[in-house]
Write a structure and sequence with these properties.
The protein is α/β, with parallel strands linked by helices and about 300 residues long. The chain has 11 helices and 9 strands. The chain has 2 domains: about 5-165, Rossmann fold; about 180-290, Glucose-6-phosphate isomerase like protein, domain 1 (Rossmann fold, 3-Layer(aba) Sandwich), CATH 3.40.50. One of its GO terms (molecular function) is isomerase activity.
Length: about 300
């Protein structure tokens, strides 16, 4: 039986969630990074991968030097103008410890403003409208990135070749309506590939498939595919690329008998909308394997350490 939170509302609402996030960005919430600030973006798991995507977007758009870290790996000896923390639950131990230990100005984006993060961050941005009942993150993560992309648009710092959030939301509607092909569900393995800001999306895609469906997935910068990961690819396995393909990669995947999935970038879906298709594939594969994608093995909604 399909499980409603992932297969229904929490995937299908993403286009509207992104539009709501864009409107929130336009309202000017306090604490979002300003042009020229040196910013560290932190999170854990999915939030870390959204931090990677945003950091690449912000810096490539000329907004300011931006680094992304797993919260547990934050370099406390460095100076930043702002720490931007992403935490859906507002209770993640490593994020709370970082915010408590730093004297830097801080902002947290969360879905739960009544949780401990409210007392730890200097500014709080409420994304409660994108909260989820599932353990596995889908719409909260993509809505965070939509908010931050929309803010870059308002600051006239959207990188060349990157669509607007309004355009991405239109593509997300197409992704929500996409029917997962049977041949993708039957794949043995997928290597997700990205470049620049889409590298974070590739990392998140791999994690989503592992969490929800116990799938064998890996993720790499696209140009690194030739430096080892191509040895994994074979008939019944795939390379899924977010954004533009490096020259020659399609031929290399074909030469080893792999399947190439490359429907985002120029002329295709916005890469963030392509991530919505991975959400749908993860749920389909979980159903195929008799798994509950909402309650993955060994995971809880928030990782709280003793």
């Amino acid at each position: 039986m399909p499980h409603p939170s992932l297969t229904g509302e929490e995937i299908a609402t993403q286009p509207e969630n992104w539009r709501t996030a864009a409107a929130l960005a336009a309202s000017g919430p306090a604490g979002l990074p300003q042009r020229g600030e040196r910013v560290a973006v932190v999170g854990c798991g999915t939030s870390w991968f959204m931090a990677q995507a945003y950091a690449a977007l912000r810096e490539s758009g000329g907004h300011g030097e931006t680094d992304a870290f797993a919260a547990s790996e934050f370099p406390h000896g460095r100076r930043y103008d702002r720490v931007l923390a992403i935490t859906r639950s507002g209770t993640t131990t490593e994020v709370l410890r970082l915010l408590a230990d730093t004297d830097l100005p801080s902002t947290a984006i969360t879905a739960c403003t009544d949780q401990p993060v409210a007392a730890s961050a200097g500014h709080l941005i409420d994304l409660g409208f994108a909260d989820e009942s599932s353990v596995v993150q889908t719409r909260f993560a993509t809505t965070v990135l939509a908010l931050l992309r929309a803010h870059l648009e308002l600051e006239e710092a959207r990188p060349a070749g990157v669509a607007t959030v309004a355009e991405a939301a239109e593509d997300a509607e197409r992704a929500v309506a996409w029917d997962v092909p049977r041949e993708l569900v039957e794949l043995e393995q997928i290597s997700f590939l990205g470049a620049g800001w889409t590298n974070g999306l590739a990392q998140e895609a791999g994690l989503k498939m592992r969490e929800a469906a116990l799938a064998w997935t890996e993720a790499y910068p696209a140009m690194e595919y030739r430096h080892g990961p191509i040895s994994i690819t074979a008939p019944g396995r795939a390379a899924w690329a977010f954004g533009a393909l490096p020259a020659g990669l399609a031929d290399e995947v074909a030469a080893v008998g792999g399947r190439l999935v490359a429907d985002s970038g120029a002329g295709g879906l916005d890469p963030l909308a392509d991530l919505v298709r991975v959400h749908k594939l993860a749920v389909a594969l979980a159903a195929h394997r008799g798994l509950n994608p909402d309650e993955p093995r060994n995971l809880t909604r928030s990782i709280i350490l003793s």
